[in-house]
Design brief:
This protein is mainly α and 278 residues long. The protein folds into two domains: 121 residues, no CATH class; 144 residues, no CATH class. It is globular, with a radius of gyration of 20 Å.
Amino acid sequence: MRQRGIDLPSLVIDSSMLQSQELRSYLQASPDNFAVLADYAWIEIYKQRTLEAIKHGLSVVGDFPDQLILLRANGEIIQLDPKEPDLRERMQFKGTADRIREMAAIFRSATVDDAVILRQLHGHWNFANSLLPVLIEGAVEIAASLPEMEEQMFTKAEVRIIRTSSRYSAAMMETIYGAAVQIWETLAQAYRLPWQNLGDGRVAQTYLFRYALGLVIHLLFRIRSGSQPVKRMDRMSNDMIDLSFCVYASYFDGFMTADEKARWIHANLVAALEAVSR
């Protein structure tokens, strides 16, 4: 079986794009194009718990099992040591093509009254549901404090700069980075991860720092959109899942999504990480 090289193009796929013609066209364009699927993508496929939903969810990716990269569960990725080499490779499951091919074939041939398949489906759902990380709950709590964060971080003049898409000052950039570091330290301590004396380069490799930086960029999007109050925590939770997709995509070659906010956050997260690396 052909082994995937580190230099081959790989895009993280948003859940909403799993059955899209855009994804099919991307995978058909070249056998060297890879789709990266995070744990949340499987949650999206299995959450409806019906055979028809599974068949639909696998309708594209099931046709390209050799062009899929499956990421480990969010909680496992959070724990990866940034001091070890090949972080991106360590985020991935290996040898998954045959399992994907077999799974797609089983569900495509299944009938709605197939008791064995329904039990298997229920098991897949339970597994996918178990992947929902506690991180989302903590991030939603942080995100709920966005109005207070905005007031503490930025002056009225700086808020106007953000809303008019003007150039950020050096002081604003320092504020953004400093806030990300504080959030990262809080999350790292909550997960009992070493966070002191890593150095900026190592810190920037960690999932939790990128997530923290993404939270601050999410705040910037909120400000530029008029600082609307958070009214529904379910939508905020979905935003945090979208943010996880953005973070995953920052390790790979791009992000396939139809969501304007997620696209903006990903692009600015990548730009911010490049600035940190300089």
